[in-house]
Design goal:
Elements: H1 2-12, H2 15-19, E1 39-42, H3 44-47, H4 53-65, H5 68-71, E2 75-77, E3 83-86, E4 92-94, H6 103-112, E5 116-122, H7 138-148, E6 152-156, H8 165-179, E7 184-187, E8 205-207, E9 219-221, E10 226-228, H9 230-235, E11 249-251, H10 264-276, E12 281-283, H11 292-298, H12 301-307, E13 316-321, E14 324-330, E15 336-342, E16 348-353, E17 375-379, E18 385-389, E19 394-399, E20 403-411
Parallel strand pairs: 1-2, 1-12, 2-5, 5-6, 6-7, 7-8, 8-11
Antiparallel strand pairs: 3-4, 9-10, 13-14, 14-15, 15-20, 16-19, 17-18, 17-20
Helix pairs in contact: 7-8, 10-11, 10-12
Length: 413
């Protein structure tokens, strides 16, 4: 049979057909996007399915007015339930009642604010909210997103019976490449199929866990699935840092800061740990009504700088003793960030002897040497200089319950 097909192809000049050259897909993501963890806002944590164009425009306005854009936040991301129906040709359209001006007009408005627009779909037949999924329509959806001017796609994993995650995400990646507009792809597969092992060339970030739950240290049990508190999600990041770096990030889900259930200390700890983990910083609160305390956390430029460090090395836990954890993050130019996290319910005293605590990064080979290098210390929450770190010094502080102290160690010149 193979000889017969070859002979027919030679006779008709269709040698390319025999090798399939006209049908090869590019299953690799757009390069040079998300070289630092994406920063932005997403509608789901606060609003779930209650989305419309007026609210999205107001969020874009608020991101500018509050100074969040100037602090580095870029994306305004519409999550589930924006969808209307597909037309006779299979192209998706937004819900006409919720988005009467259309997605192109909304994208133009967001872009006029110096921001970018993100959208949501699902690899299955339906989204998690029961709207039309992209299964079987991947290339049409990608063309539509490109025509609208979309910049970011969160791609979920509900109603995916029979699909294999790697193949499904490669399909949408190929569709995005074919559509011709560079779009950041957020793989929202919940970590079930270990996307960190195959996602580096497919997407720009991948969820490592199920959904976050708005509490510091608890689990919400839904029966067939669970949502996870901030500390539970942090624990799930163990051993994943070696997969992350510029353009490909572990994603422990969106921020719950400002949604009313976390204390000020818990908000600081949440934000600090996401910065140390080089995680996407995607706010999930109402930007229009947030208080000054919430804004102060979300726009702490010193902590954001740890997250956005161009070296792109994810932090790691150095030690844990009686609820007090020490975290470290190597930074560009030989600097370090050191965070003291108090997971307990009582205040903890830190006596950190630099001479006894040389830090070694076994994944990427970075290390400190306090005997030969002196570092200047800055507390990134109270903004105060804390002297130097050398073998002759001990750093002493008190860390309140469910709170954090984070230092930047800058090499002294």
């Amino acid at each position: 049979m193979k000889k017969l097909i070859t002979a027919l192809c030679l006779a008709t000049g269709l040698t390319g057909f025999a090798q399939g050259n006209n049908y090869v897909q590019d299953y690799t993501k757009y390069q040079n996007l998300a070289l630092t963890p994406p920063m932005g806002w997403n509608s789901w944590n606060k609003f779930a399915c209650n989305v419309d164009e007026k609210m999205i425009m107001q969020m874009a306005d608020a991101m500018v007015a509050t100074g969040m854009r100037d602090a580095g936040y870029t994306y305004i991301n519409i999550d589930d339930c924006w969808h209307g129906d597909r037309d006779a040709q299979g192209f998706i359209h937004p819900d006409a009642k919720r988005f009467p001006s259309g997605m192109k007009a909304l994208a133009d408005y967001v872009h006029s604010k110096g921001l970018k627009l993100g959208i949501y779909s699902d690899a299955g037949s339906q989204t998690c909210g029961g709207r039309p999924g992209s299964r079987g329509f991947e290339f049409q959806d990608a063309q539509q997103y490109a025509a609208w001017g979309i910049d970011y796609l969160k791609y979920d994993w509900c109603n995916t019976e029979g699909l294999k995650a790697e193949g499904a995400y490669k399909t949408i990646t190929a569709a995005l490449k074919k559509a011709g507009r560079p779009i950041v792809l957020s793989i929202c597969e919940w970590g079930t199929d270990k996307p960190w092992e195959w996602g580096q060339n497919v997407g720009h970030l991948w969820r490592t866990t199920g959904d976050i739950y708005n509490c510091f240290d608890c689990i919400e049990d839904h029966g067939t699935w669970k949502s996870w508190g901030v500390m539970q999600i942090v624990d799930m990041q163990k051993d994943l840092r070696k997969y992350a770096g510029p353009g490909h990030w572990n994603d422990p889900d969106m921020l719950e800061i400002g949604n009313g259930k976390l204390t000020p200390g818990e908000n600081r700890a949440h934000f600090t740990l996401w910065a140390m983990l080089a995680a996407p910083l995607i706010a999930g609160n109402d930007l229009r009504t947030m208080d000054a305390e919430t804004l102060e956390v979300l726009t702490n430029k010193d902590v954001i700088a740890l997250n956005q460090d161009k070296q792109g090395t994810q932090g790691f836990k150095v030690s844990a003793t009686d609820g007090l954890e020490v975290w470290a993050k190597p930074l560009q130019g030989g600097d370090w960030a050191i965070a003291f996290l108090n997971r307990g319910t009582v205040n903890k005293t830190v006596d950190f002897d630099w001479s006894k605590n040389e830090i070694k990064d076994t994944d990427f080979g970075f290390s400190t040497n306090f005997a030969t290098t002196t570092y200047n210390l800055k507390n990134l929450w109270d903004k105060k200089d804390k002297g130097t770190a050398t073998t002759k010094k001990v750093f002493k502080t008190m860390v309140p319950a469910h709170d954090v102290v984070v230092l930047r160690l800058t090499k002294k010149k």
